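Researcher: Please predict.
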Amino acid sequence: MKIYVVVTIFNEENFIEDSLKSLLDQTYQAKKILVVDDNSTDRTHEIVQKIESQSSILKLIKYSSKTGHSPGKKVIEGFKFGLKQLDENYDIICKFDGDVTFPINYFEKIIHHYKRNPKIGMVSGLCFVKENQKWVYENIASKNHIRGPIKSYRKKCFDSIGGLKSSEGWDTVDELIALHRGWEFYTDKMLKVKHLKATGSNYEKSVKFNEGKALYKIRSGIIITLISAFKRAYNKKRISILFYCIIGFLIAMIKNESFIVTKEEGRFIRYHRWKNIYKRLTSFTILYVYNK
C-alpha cells in the first residue's frame, strides 16, 4: 500500500526536524512526504530545506494563507493546497502536523490495520504530551477519536467523505461522515505519538469559542453541545471551557453561520451521539448498582 503524507507547518523550528526525521526513519517507508510551509517567519523553512536536500521522498513547498493561527480553516486550506500538488496514485493519505514525532513502526502498524479490515477507513495512534518529565496521554478527547495532528485515511474513504471541511470541527465531522458512509475507524492504543507542543498553546484568544461553533456547524443541537462542553470542561478541570463552548455555539447560531453537514448527516450525527451517551449512562448505572 502506498502512503502519501502532507505535513502542514507554521513556525515549527523547535520541532520540525525531529518530526520529519521520525517520518523518514520508518520501517515502512512513505512514497511521498510533502511539507507545506504556511508563511513561517522563524527558521522552519531553512531547517526543512536542509532535510529536503538529503531525501528523495520529501519535498518542501511554500503556501500563503491569511494571517493568524486557527485550528480550523487555515490548516485544512494548507493541506488541500498540498494535496493538489500530488498525484492520486496512493492508497493511504496522511495529514500530519509538524510538532509530532512518531514511533519507528508507525506506518507499518497502520498499514497492518488497513489490510486486516477493508472496512477501516481511518487509523491513528494516540497523542501523548510531556508533563513533569513523563509522557502522558493528552486528555482532550476520547481515546477512540483520531486526532487532527495524526490523521490517516484510506483513499476510498477519503473520497467518499468528500475530503476535509475547511472549518472548525473538521477533525470530528470527518469521522462522523465516514461512519454515515459505512466506514469504520480505529485507534491503536499501543502506538504512542509524542505531541511536542500541547494543543492550543499558540492559538489566538478568539479561537476559545471554536468548539462551540464547530458543534453548531455539525448540527449537534444545544443539548448535545451542553453535554460535550461539560465533558470537555471536566476532563480539563477548567469550568471556563463550558462557558466558552456555549457562547461559541450561540454566536454561530445568532450569526446564522453555514452548516458543514447536510440535514441527513446532521440527523445521523445526533443519533450517533445520543446512542453513545445512552451506552455510557447504561454502563455507569450497571457499575453503580454492582458496587452498591
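Model: Residues 93 and 207 are 27 Å apart (CA to CA).
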